[in-house]
Amino acid sequence: TGPRVADAAVAEFPLSPFIVDAGGVGSSVYDHLVEVIRADASAVQFGAAPPEPVLGEPWSENMRTAMYVRASMLVRFGLVDVAEDPLLLEELLAHELLSKQRTVEVDGRKERVEAVLLIAKDKVKERIGRSPDRADAFVPAAGSPVQVDHEHRLVAHQKRRHDFLIAERAR
């Protein structure tokens, strides 16, 4: 199914870069995009170690949590809009953060800090009766920085997947 999904994505959005959840079944989608189609794609592993938080963010227990926290902050600050999609909103709101403790290295020494962890994906599935696929697609896309290239098109700085490509060449 990976090649079929990759082919369909490129057919629908031929100029878009893609971010693919490369864990589990997503790995064949990513492999096909990069190795066969040679599409502009990057992989994310939701279970990977989280990055250090930016100012105002809590420490996260894993990449999935860090991406949801970052997307939430960007929405809260008005930097990213959430589509008026009731299914997406239901999925995003079904998530919950749990308080945790995490050991991190600060200035060369280990330190215990407050951290957060999203409830398990299976718990979200129980709450809404389906997988939160729309939320899992929105979150990595929302958190990827964007820059304007010399042709005045929005392009992904970190090869982020866009559902849109705005061209201003029509002038």
Q: Secondary-structure blueprint of this entry?
A:
Elements: H1 2-12, E1 18-21, H2 26-37, E2 41-44, E3 59-60, H3 63-76, H4 86-93, E4 97-106, E5 109-118, H5 121-128, H6 133-142, E6 146-148, E7 154-156
Parallel strand pairs: 1-2, 3-5
Antiparallel strand pairs: 4-5, 6-7
Helix pairs in contact: 1-2, 3-6, 4-6
Characteristics:
171 residues; alpha/beta; 3-stranded mixed beta sheet; two-stranded parallel sheet; 6 helices; 7 strands; disordered C terminus
What does this structure look like?
By secondary structure, this protein is of the alpha/beta class. Helix content is 37%, strand content 21%. It has six helices and seven strands. The strands form three sheets. Strands 3-5-4 form a three-stranded mixed sheet.
Distance between the termini: 42 Å
Class by alpha and beta content:
alpha/beta
Mean pLDDT: 82
Largest sheet: 3 strands, mixed
Main sheet: which strands, in order across? 3-5-4
**What's the helical proportion of residues?**
25-40%
